[in-house]
UniProtKB/TrEMBL annotation:
Pfam family, one: AzlC
Family membership: Belongs to the AzlC family.
Subcellular compartments: Cell membrane
Chief place of localization: membrane
InterPro entries per UniProt: Brnchd-chn_aa_trnsp_permease (IPR011606)
One BP annotation, GO: L-valine transmembrane transport
Key word Electron transport present: no
Name of the protein described by the UniProt record: Branched-chain amino acid ABC transporter permease
Topology term for the membrane: Multi-pass membrane protein
Length: 238
């Protein structure tokens, strides 16, 4: 039972469950290292960028805007907008991890990624009897094969630079990562409705400034999922 499961078991279970993401984290991180080096950043700047931000999507967004000579204010605001999904993740995990010790919450906030959120949310739904220490341990375990390898693969990409063949197409890692996280969660009508709306809205709003369309699509998808879930609950209660 979850109540007697050792904390270390939860940690290593999270780490094992996150291992498949290495298949996409490593090329994704290497791709950023190559792109950042090509953009003129030195090794210290590339690694500082990767370690301090620790968010691939906003890192690539900021890098693209920097290449386009956008004002620093626009780079910062747009990158924050892209990363606002982390606030949505935090709200979703707050019922599970909100009572953790302050230093745990700081660490969780820093290590929050799409992968650690997706795995943890699924695990908490699968095993609702998990204690708070078990939930924290699982989350931190899920971060082990994703966060550290991200920085190491960025370093490898920055050092290798142009030695990586252009035809290797490392950018496949981006869509594959998100598909691997989303697919297991599409288990109900509200989930499917939210996914459908997010795809349609993201395509329809793709002409908006960087990140804005995706944020609006995410908000519409969450509203759709919540609305469909309420309608189903009312129908079942009738």
């Amino acid at each position: 039972m979850a109540s007697i499961t050792p904390i270390s078991h939860c940690f290593w279970r999270g780490a094992r469950n996150a291992l498949p993401f290495l298949l996409v984290i490593l090329p994704f991180g290497a791709l950023f290292g190559v792109a950042a080096t090509d953009a003129g950043l030195d090794l210290a700047e590339v690694m500082g960028f990767s370690i301090l931000v620790l968010a691939g999507a906003s890192q690539f967004t900021a890098l693209q805007l920097m290449n386009d000579h956008a004002p620093a204010f626009m780079v910062i605001v747009t990158s924050l907008a892209v990363n606002l999904r982390m606030a949505m993740y935090s709200v979703s995990l707050a019922p599970h991890l909100g009572r953790a010790a302050p230093w745990h919450r700081v660490l969780i906030a820093y290590l929050m990624t799409d992968q650690s959120f997706g795995l943890s949310q699924q695990e908490y739904e699968r095993a609702p009897a998990m204690s708070l220490p078990q939930k924290v341990a699982y989350f931190l375990g899920a971060c082990l094969p994703t966060c550290l390898p991200w920085s190491l693969s960025t370093l490898a990409g920055a050092l290798a630079g142009k030695a990586i063949p252009e035809g290797l197409a490392l950018d496949f890692a981006v869509p594959v990562t998100f598909l691997a996280m989303i697919a297991p969660g599409l288990r109900s009508v509200p989930h499917l409705a939210a996914a459908a709306v997010s795809v349609i809205a993201a395509l329809a709003l793709s002409s908006l400034p960087t990140g804005t369309g995706l944020l609006l699509a995410a908000l519409l998808a969450m509203w759709t999922g919540a609305t469909v879930e309420r309608l189903l609950e009312r129908r079942n209660a009738a």
